[in-house]
Design brief:
The protein has 127 residues and is an alpha+beta fold. The chain is built from four helices and six strands, in the order E-E-H-H-E-E-H-H-E-E. 54% of the residues lie in helices and 13% in strands. The strands form two sheets. Strands 4-3-5-6 form a four-stranded mixed β-sheet. Strands 1-2 form a two-stranded antiparallel sheet.
Length: 127
């Protein structure tokens, strides 16, 4: 068996091969994670996505991905909200859809300037 070499004639030690192999694996893992998580993983907060216009809010208490790159992120946010609305509805013997509309008022009020809001008339308005 021949020894692995670095460049043309410089032999590479086993420990150096292991380090380089580990670094290559780490780089591949980092790339895979960034592709899987998408640009939403880089966003610091929902407020920033609101302000940028990438994510809007609907009259029923659910977020809307105005930029398709954030669809997965919005799906997660809406899943969490649906659970909150369901629990609050059960506690108050109410319809979760009505609870969502009540929460929507607070969400829209607290949303930063620049947030796009979708009303019951299905028209967008920027805050």
């Amino acid at each position: 068996m021949s020894k692995a070499t670095l460049g043309k004639d410089i032999p590479m030690s086993k420990s150096r091969r292991l380090v380089l192999s580990s670094l290559a694996g780490l780089a591949a893992l980092t790339l895979l994670c960034s592709l899987a998580l998408g640009p939403a993983a880089a966003a610091e907060s929902l407020a920033q996505l609101h302000a940028s216009g990438a994510v809007g809010e609907r009259f029923d208490g659910f977020a809307v991905a105005r930029d398709a790159a954030y669809a997965g992120y919005v799906k997660d946010v809406n899943g969490q909200r649906a659970q909150v609305y369901k629990k609050a509805a059960a506690k108050n013997n109410a319809d979760p859809k009505e609870v969502g509309k009540v929460y929507a008022q607070t969400i829209m009020k607290k949303a930063p300037k620049g947030t796009w809001l979708l009303g019951p008339n299905n028209k967008w308005k920027q805050k």
